[in-house]
Design goal:
By secondary structure, this protein is mainly alpha-helical. Helices cover 56% and strands 1% of the residues. It has a three-stranded parallel sheet with strand order 1-3-2, with no helix packed on it. 42% of the residues are buried.
Length: 401
């Protein structure tokens, strides 16, 4: 069995997971979840509606000054409204986080962004059904495993090569940051959904279809959909690219034409810049959540609830928060540990749970990583550049039950 000084071929260091009483650990966390679920109520519903309202106000205020001249205020406000709609409303509603709360029916997982409501609730590049499958199922139930489609170290294998010139790495990462919802998330999520649909139609005895972990790619599986030269690539452009581009960069600027062509041009420019800003903002608060030289990645699947909980904690990181203002700016993704323990809770419950989860981890000797988003981004950058590697849990190691 590898020891803590062994390294994988990709540079990851084998470090055993904390040796803990898994059963007792799981029991305490499960009891805390029951308490949190029992307390879901009007306060959580009011909080979601407040965060949704803040996001809408950002969007409205941004467009209110977007027609005058291209300007950073409009860009920042429109971009922040874009981020809020995805990270706070869409993310938690589609995780069924508010199905037990007294929210309007439109904010339940059964209704949100379904059918024509997609363009009312969440007009973005990602197909809602595809994103829900890739994120809610593949990412959350394979966190840190090779079949986690969002495992940064695995996806960035080409960037991490020593032979690649560093300036070229910087350019590629910058381009990814500026466009990643369109260039990464939209095709990757649709590719995952297409694979699931093909798998469902597969006949017994046929060669198994590739998974996010074993298919060949330059960076990520969905890259093969970016060019509309295959049936699946055309589907990506038809379902994801063209409709959203027509709304954001066609319909919305056209609404300002009665104010003149200059107003139309200013809104168009601000809309494009706001999209770029939203990509960078979202990248900075999302991607560092599961990357760093102090974060584990894993072989195989967890064997029980205790190991599942352990993996979610040591494979995720938090950013400090504690107020609606700070948490809003970080899209409530600063409670990533609590969210990965229990993906189907309201946002407010994660803030309430965080100090108690941290105390449980301290009592059991489980690392609970919480650093500023800037510190975490530095650690992410080191992973992307190939200057650092993640910890890797040896496969089949003994953990106390």
């Amino acid at each position: 069995m590898p020891n803590r000084h062994d390294s994988a071929m990709d540079g990851s260091t084998f470090v055993p997971l904390p040796q803990i009483d898994r059963s007792a650990f799981a029991a305490e966390l499960t009891a805390l979840r029951r308490e949190l679920v029992a307390d879901i109520g009007p306060e959580d519903a009011a909080h979601l509606l407040r965060m949704e309202r803040w996001g809408r106000l950002c969007t409205a205020a941004g467009y209110a000054c977007a027609w005058v001249v291209p300007n950073p205020i409009a860009v920042l406000l429109i971009g922040m409204g874009n981020v809020a709609r995805w990270t706070m409303v869409t993310h938690h509603v589609m995780h069924r986080g508010y199905d037990k709360a007294p929210v309007p029916e439109r904010l339940t997982s059964a209704k949100y962004a379904q059918g024509w409501r997609r363009w009312l609730d969440w007009p973005d590049w990602m197909d809602p059904k595809a994103w829900a499958y890739e994120h809610n199922h593949l990412h959350h139930f394979h966190t840190g495993e090779v079949d986690d489609p969002d495992l940064v170290e695995h996806n960035a294998w080409l960037l991490r090569l020593r032979v690649m010139p560093r300036p070229l790495k910087w350019v590629l990462v910058l381009l990814l940051m500026l466009t990643w919802k369109l260039s990464y998330y939209a095709p990757n999520t649709l590719w995952a959904l297409q694979q699931r649909e093909l798998r469902a139609a597969q006949r017994e005895g046929e060669t198994p279809l590739p998974t996010p972990g074993n298919i060949w790619r330059l960076l990520y599986p969905g890259e093969r959909l970016l060019l509309p030269i295959t049936r699946r690539g055309i589907a990506f452009w038809w379902r994801c690219v063209l409709p959203n581009a027509a709304i954001k960069f066609g319909l919305v600027p056209a609404l300002f034409l009665p104010l003149g062509t200059w107003a139309w041009a200013a809104v168009l420019i601000n809309s494009v810049l706001a999209e770029l800003y939203a990509n960078v903002h979202a990248f900075a608060i999302i991607v560092p959540n599961h990357a760093g030289d102090d974060v584990w990645r894993f072989e195989g699947h967890p064997r029980d609830r205790g190991e599942f909980y352990l993996r979610q904690i040591v494979g995720s990181v938090n950013y400090p928060g504690g107020s609606d203002g700070r948490d809003f700016l970080m899209g409530y993704l600063n409670y990533q540990i609590e969210h990965h323990l229990w993906p189907d809770l309201p946002m407010l419950k994660y803030r309430q749970a965080a100090p108690r989860v941290k105390a449980i981890c301290e009592r059991f000797g489980v690392p609970y990583v919480e650093e500023s988003v800037f510190e975490r981004f530095k650690r992410l950058w080191a992973i992307l550049m190939g200057d650092a590697s993640m910890r890797r849990a040896p496969q089949g190691e003994a953990v106390l039950g």
